[in-house]
Amino acid sequence: MAPKRAVRLSLKTPTHAVCVVGVVTLVDIHSDVPKGASSFGVSGSSGVEVFMACNRTHVTKPIGKASWPLDTDADVAVSVGTASKELKDFKVKVSYFGEQEGRALGHSVLYLTGVDISLDADTGRTGKVERIQGDKKTWRWGPGGYGAILLVNCDRDDHRSTEPDLTHSQLRSLADLQDMSPLVLSCNGPDKLFDSHKLVLNVSFSDSKRLRVFCARGGNSLSDYKQVLGPQCRSYQVERQPGEQEVRFYVEGLTFPDDDFLGLVSLSVCLVDARALLEVTLFTDTVVFRVAPWIMTPNTQPPEELYVCSVVDDHGSNEKFLEDMSYLALKASCKLVICPRVENRNDRWIQDEMEFGYIEAPHKSFPVVFDSPRNRGLRDFPYKRILGPDFGYVTREIPFAAPSSLDSFGNLDVSPPVTVGGMEYPLGRILIGSSFPKSGGRQMARVVRNFLKAQQVQAPVELYSDWLAVGHVDEFLTFVPTSDQKGFRLLLASPRACLKLFQEKMEEGYGEAAQFDGLKYKAKRSINEMLADRRLQRDSLHAQRCIDWNREVLKRELGLAESDIVDIPQLFFRNDSYAEAFFPDMVNMVVLGKYLGIPKPYGPIIDGRCCLEERVRSLLEPLGLHCVFIDDYLSYHKLLGEIHCGTNVRRKPFPFKWWNMVP
Question: What residues does the Protein-arginine deiminase (PAD) N-terminal domain cover (predicted)?
Answer without folding.
Answer: 1-113
